[in-house]
Write a structure and sequence with these properties.
Elements: H1 10-39, E1 48-50, E2 53-55
Antiparallel strand pairs: 1-2
């Protein structure tokens, strides 16, 4: 015989959803902060390759091919 399932309360559902949304908001802020530091050449711990050369945070990044 079929037994009805217990339903999750609205408050529990909202709590779980808010936790999930807060996690994504924190990740987005961290990514935005990293992108902003890279664009302003203030990044201390992030290195990236451009035109097959490795640029650090202390070097200026140019898009000119010389």
């Amino acid at each position: 015989m079929a037994v009805p399932k217990k339903h999750t309360s609205k408050s529990k559902t909202r709590i779980r959803k808010s936790i999930w949304k807060n996690k994504s908001t924190k990740k987005a802020l961290k990514a935005f902060s990293l992108a902003r530091s890279i664009l302003t050449n203030r990044s201390k711990s992030f290195y990236y390759a451009m035109n097959n050369k490795l640029f650090g945070s202390s070097e200026s990044v140019s898009t000119d091919d010389k």
